[in-house]
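Morning F.,

Quick status update on the modeling queue. The single chain you submitted on Monday has been processed. Sequence for confirmation:
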Amino acid sequence: MPRFCNYTNANGGYSIVSPWAAFDKIEEYGYLLPNLSIKAIDKAIQWSRALSPTQTQELIIRNINYSKQKWNIQQFEYEFQYLLKNEIINHTK
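Structure tokens below.
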């Protein structure tokens, strides 16, 4: 079952996601599908097509900035160390 769709072009992309793949404030970064029905998907496509070039560019920039903050090497390092420490603690008990 698809949970995520990403409109992309040469400059980046924005999100069209289901409730299962959405994160907080998704509406600031893209479109939240209420469900995965044909009607809901059609509405998302219509929403996407109605965006002006400026709105599209703004969404792309917001998504790029969010991605840089959320998914970067420092965040990965922190999460990896946290999980590794927890695993070590759990196995040494």
